[in-house]
Amino acid sequence: MPLPADVRFMNAVTAAFALVFALLSLAVLVSWLMRHPLFNLGAIAVQGDVTHNNAVTLRANVTPRLAGNFFTVNLAQTRAVFESVPWVRRATIQRQFPNRLKVVLQEHQAVAFWGPEGDTRLVNNFGEIFEANQAEVDATDLPQLNGPVGQAPLVLDAYRLLSAQFEKLDMTIERLELTGQGSWRAVFENGAAVEIGHGSLAEIDSRAQRFVATLTQISARYGRDLESADLRYSNGYALKLKGVTTLDPSDKNDKSVKR
Asked: Do 51 and 13 belong together in one domain?
């Protein structure tokens, strides 16, 4: 026979109280475990790229800014703390039971200086701009790149394209700039300056390729090195060789060799 309504009600109330008591007990147990010293962060294992950071620098930059224990530490905030350390590009954070964190770092790989002379910013191999102590840069012959805000990836791509072309002439780009008007200008280690002009990467690459293909012949003819060149012509270029003067009958002051 079915139980009376009042008995069913009492059973339901009893079950509900039992469930609430169990949940409260579980909450108390979890709270106690989360506060137990066993789970206080005791160590952080750092792996990956640590060329520019060591245990001392990381401890000084990171440890004071961490909060919580194994259960309560915010991994997103912890990642942001590590990524704010100089030279750190990416950080991956994992918990390791019962009281450790595993951190894998990826450092910036500096490939160029960025901005005008004296600027402290650098460009990594992804075309991202970052700030770090330039005295810690491994290479001493990095080029100087410059351009409008947000154009670092484009300037880096252009540098790679043009460098491959001018390497055929044993010419190394020291500075490459994209002006606010969209014009390219390169300065080389030997002091030569080349105005490349406007255009897409494909257009400036084609222009540089045409220039490189014929410069050797002209330089050999005069036995002189390049001083400057202007590639902003649709069907050729103008250049100036060191110590070479050519006179145009119509212009006694003309000192350029036009191709």
From this structure: no
Whether residues 29 and 53 fall in one domain: no
Residue 15, Ramachandran bin (φ over 0: left; ψ between -120 and 50: alpha; else beta): alpha
Q: Are residues 116 and 228 in the same domain?
A: yes
> How many distinct structural domains can be found in the chain?
3
CA 88 to CA 70: how far, in whole Å?
23
- Same-domain check for residues 56 and 31: no
What is the residue range of 182's domain? 110-258
| 241 and 187 fall within a common domain | yes
**Cβ atoms 119, 95 nearer than 8 A:** no
Kindly report the pTM of this predicted structure: 0.80
Q: Which of 135, 221, 210 is nearest to 168 (CA)?
A: 210
pLDDT tens digits, the chain, 259 residues: what are they? 676 777 677 778 788 888 887 888 787 776 766 667 888 888 999 999 999 988 888 988 898 999 888 988 999 999 999 999 999 999 999 999 999 999 999 999 999 999 998 888 999 999 999 998 888 888 778 999 999 999 999 999 999 999 999 999 999 999 999 999 999 999 999 999 999 999 999 999 999 999 999 998 887 787 788 999 999 998 889 989 888 765 444 444 444 455 5
